[in-house]
Amino acid sequence: MRQLLLAIGLTSCLGLAIAAPKGVVMDFGALDTIDALGGGEAVVAIPKQFAPEYLEKYQTETMKSSGDMFKLDMDLIAQENPDFIIISGRQGKSAAELQAIAPVINFSAANDDFLESAKFNIFAVGNAIEKRPEAEAAWNTLSTKFEKSAEKAKASAQKALVLMHNDGNFWISNNSGYATFVHDVLGVKRAETEEVEKGAQADAAYLTSKNPDIIYIIDRSAAIGQPAMDQEYFKAADMAQINAIKNDKVIYLTPKLWYLSGKGLQSLDLQTDEIMKAID
Questions:
Q1: Strand, coil or helix: what is 258?
Q2: Is the pTM of this model over 0.85?
Q3: Closest by alpha carbon to 83, among 37, 41, 129?
Q4: Residue range 155-276, CATH number
Q5: pLDDT averaged over the chain?
Q6: Which CATH architecture has domain 2-138?
Q7: CA nearest neighbour of 275 among 195, 225, 215
């Protein structure tokens, strides 16, 4: 250790620059966190094809493409010789192979401990780009926003459902990470209080029986470049008496922000704003 410190001191005295860390970032919540912390120069490759609109500044000619969300360009990633690699759950199967190239940060957040895992990941990213103090300060600001939002939501009588659209079908997303954030972090009351089988459809009969005051919709199809949902769907006569529809509270969440990003400093902030606009 003493020799390492002496070497660092000698490097400093000689005026030699220590290279800043650089990374391949395949999770957009992690990318928006790096951007929020002022570390964008550290990013050398991303999945350019799917970048959300709020991160368009990274869609440059000089930015390399790490592949798509599932099929990674391992040759390019290795050639970039990154100091760190950040993945989402979509790249989880490649984690061991990527770990052989550089240390891997998995930016996924656990549904049962969403805030703590999101905080852990954001701090890990702060460490990777040598901006841990900035990450801690930004998280504290965001936590305060969550608390104030939850106070408002809990004081409201409104109940909500979170739905996912894909190829003309609407799934009930009551047990997902999206629902965890909306209901458990931001405190929006649930119109559905029971566990729902994965893939269960939100048809007119179901929506009428639950009668939500707010319907939040994440359009997976639109997020991945397929035909967006038909917004006439909720204008059918057999849905006319549902509170959310009567009161114009069907909220179309920004598709890429929700489906392809999330859990980052900017995305969590933007998502909070979209949810809370519907709360009276």
A1: helix
A2: yes
A3: 129
A4: 3.40.50.1980
A5: 91
A6: 3-Layer(aba) Sandwich (3.40)
A7: 215
